[in-house]
Amino acid sequence: MQIILFLLIFTVIILVHEGGHFIIGKKSGIGVVEFSLGLGPTIWGIERGGTKYSIKALPFGGACQFEGFDGDELDSSPTSFVNASVWARIATVFAGPFMNFVLAFFLSLFVVGSIGYDAPVISQVMEDYPAAKAGLREGDEIVKVGSDHIAIYRDISLDLMLNEGEAMEITYRRDGELFKTTLTPEYNAEAGRYLFGIIGGQRVKGNPLTTIRYSFAEVRYWIEATWKSLGMIFKGKVTKDDVAGPVGVAQVVGDVYEQSKPSGIFYIWINMMMLTILLTANLGVMNLLPVPALDGGRLVFLLIEAVVGHPVNRKAEAFIHFVGMVVLLVFMFLVLFNDISKFFH
């Protein structure tokens, strides 16, 4: 069951991503050679409107192949990718990651509408920690940490993620009035991070407008969490064991499934959707990084073209993307090897 759930989640995320490229590409008059479900050899296919729709042997992800996307062999075709306007190409490339965020939003609507959002309200203050010493109480609502506005309780943990014991100004609401105090978080060895000494995050359900508002907050949180996690990697705060590839993600899906089973099918469903929100937002952010071969890397070249008025040398760009793809494949292999090696520790 765990493997089936992982394949289903991963395939939905990839198909939504590739579907974004497909829809905007088609609307822009760019020819789509093939739109496929899965990878590997084709086991079924049908052609409609100049596009082959196929199912591949390996039930893993999918792909959208445009005319002339990685070369100039089809430059004479009016529907070739390279012959579309630069803004049509920018929209087509950006649409993939954007649809990952759209998927995260719609799943968040269901999750927040079903179980509510984690309100940034203190439910317990830990003794002898900075919050208790500063006089914070149960029921106080955290409004800002530093200059960051707090929408959900997890925003507080996110602000502490890169903190190394630095003082932070806290704005909180009590009985309708706003107060400010300065807290210097203390390191908790058991948790392995700095803490203010507050516990909260109780789920609160609201009206439809509240659900929409906090669904946006949910997506924004995971985008920001992914971005800050990347910052932790560059600062050396993340080890190789903290990075997971497909095997590691499949293990996480299995763990979440097993932990959710005692609570029933509803919570299995909710937790799988919450995991999908995390993964699809993560994929959207990662694909927008300005790395050759990724959507973000392609957008860099397209934006340069939009500014200077002519494309970068296509052969040079293709070579850079090829090198980027090789580097990414090596990185993916190392992550896969690391995932598998964890089973033997």
Protein architecture, described:
- A four-stranded antiparallel sheet has the order 6-5-7-8, covered by helices on one side.
- By secondary structure, the chain is an alpha+beta fold.
- It has a domain at 117-204: PDZ domain (Pdz3 Domain, Roll), CATH 2.30.42.
- β5 and β6 form a beta hairpin.
- The protein is built from nine helices and twelve strands.
Task: Provide a concise account of the structure shown.
With 345 residues, the protein is of the alpha+beta class. The protein has 9 helices and 12 strands.
Q: H/E element string?
A: HEEHEEHEEHEEEEEEHHHHH
What's the CATH C level of the domain at 117-204? Answer: Mainly Beta
Number of helices: 9
N-C termini distance: 24 Å
Strand elements, count: 12
Average pLDDT level: 87
Query: Helix/strand-derived class?
Result: alpha+beta
Shape: globular
Helix content: 40-55%
Low-confidence stretches: none
CATH superfamily of the domain at 117-204: PDZ domain
CATH architecture of the domain at 117-204: Roll
What proportion of the residues form beta strands (DSSP E)?
Answer: 15-25%
Give the C-alpha Rg: 23 Å
CATH topology of the domain at 117-204: Pdz3 Domain
Strand order of the largest sheet: 6-5-7-8
The main pleated sheet reads as: 4 strands, antiparallel
